[in-house]
């Protein structure tokens, strides 16, 4: 015997999905929410009521996590495909408006034994006159789209829109 409420998602046509995207900690999260909701609002399968919303769920060291909540009519739209397209279009809109979606940053700390081992390796290779050298390098930063006048973005957007239409075509 069940003691809790059972929801039959196939019976109720309105269904909500959520997804999270993180923007850079230096970006304005409210502006990012507006851009994301505007992008979601242009998708034909998104219901006007209940309205899509977005909230800040977490502030990390390198990003601010935004959660988008979107409603669809699953009797007319494939739920999983709608979620996938909404994520993609929101991500593209944020990037096109100059928001960066940072990857996690990990800081590694090594103990003295490892530093001594590396130093020993460097000394032994230099005394053996080996061609191998150990150097420390800093990775070059990569930049996202900084300007909105990128013809590739327009081409990608048109391709995305075409793919979205064919993606939802029912046989």
Short overview:
With 171 residues, the protein is α+β, with helices and mostly antiparallel strands. It has helices at residues 29-41, 79-96, 112-127, 151-167, and strands at residues 14-24, 53-59, 63-73. Helix 1 (29-41) packs across helix 2 and helix 2 packs antiparallel against helix 4.
Q: Helix and strand string, N-terminal first?
A: EHEEHHH
CATH C-level class of the domain at 14-104 and 150-167: Alpha Beta
Any idea of the CATH topology of the domain at 14-104 and 150-167? Alpha-Beta Plaits
Low-confidence stretches: none
User: What is the averaged pLDDT score?
Assistant: 82
CATH architecture of the domain at 14-104 and 150-167: 2-Layer Sandwich
**Based on CA inertia axes, which overall geometry fits?**
elongated
Strand content: 15-25%
Gap between N and C termini? 40 Å
Task: Give the total of beta strands.
Answer: 3
Q: What is the subunit arrangement here?
A: single chain
Helix/strand-derived category reads alpha+beta
Major β-sheet profile: 3 strands, antiparallel
């Amino acid at each position: 015997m069940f003691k809790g409420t059972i929801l039959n998602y196939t019976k109720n046509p309105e269904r909500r999905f959520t997804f999270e995207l993180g923007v850079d900690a230096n970006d304005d999260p409210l502006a990012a929410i507006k851009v994301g909701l505007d992008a979601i609002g242009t998708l034909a399968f998104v219901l006007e009521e209940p309205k899509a919303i977005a909230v800040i769920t977490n502030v990390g060291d390198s990003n601010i996590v935004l959660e988008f909540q979107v409603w669809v009519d699953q009797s007319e739209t494939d739920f999983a495909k709608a979620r996938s397209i909404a994520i993609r279009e929101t991500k593209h809109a944020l990037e096109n408006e100059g928001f960066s979606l940072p990857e996690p940053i990990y800081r590694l700390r090594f103990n003295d034994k490892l530093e001594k081992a590396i130093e020993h390796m460097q000394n032994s290779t230099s005394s053996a006159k080996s061609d191998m050298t150990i150097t420390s390098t800093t990775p070059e930063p990569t930049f996202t789209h900084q300007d909105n006048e990128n013809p590739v973005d327009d081409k990608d957007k048109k391709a995305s829109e075409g793919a979205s239409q064919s993606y939802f075509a029912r046989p």
